[in-house]
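seq:
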Amino acid sequence: MKEEESIRIVDYKEIGAVSFIKKPSVRNLKITIRPVKGVQVSVPRFLSFESAYRFVEEKKPWIKKSLLKLARIKSGISVFDYNTHFQTRDHKLVLDKHAKATIKTVIGHGRITVIFPDFAEVSDHRVQKAIRKGILQAWKLEAAKYLPALVKQLADKNHLKFSRLTFRDNKTRWGSCSRDNKISLNIHLMRLPDHLCEYVILHELAHTIYKHHQKAFWQYLDQLTRGRARILDKELSGYSPEVW
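struct:
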């Protein structure tokens, strides 16, 4: 018989509800904290829920700190309206209305144009969703336009090679590098400051040499970033690809 997913929710003092999820595919005990989803604990099938409960008790200080950080990030989530002056590298957000009952998004001519019904408020979650979708489309176009040349430039400068470059809208990672040196970059790099965008690319290029985050990797990344790897990594932690 196929083993099914099992979920338990426990309310903890100071950190609130925590979801414990046990399913066959989980191999390691892991805590994740995400907007909307909150605190979730992945529990391997060979571990008891009671052991996972104790693990959370031990990690309470870290969880509290992470929840405070998440609250600060969430307070910065953008709500777009007519007074919002939003600009990507190549596109300006434009809001308009029409007599139809549909929401339409058009990317082109340097604009992200979102057209919605006369009767709808711009604060309506469907309008906000369309705006964010349009912005993501613009970032995807711009990532494909600007990042390949930058990756090649940084790779050539440091005598590094990668086999392929792709782009994704990823909610958790800024980039990744596979065992065969395929690099994937998050389209949200397009909203990072230039020096952090370059840092993410150098981080993934460093993984073409070192497939881990051990001492040798950081020493090599320090060479690529003039001794600023840890500083840049800490600065990057102030941004989230999931919340903007």
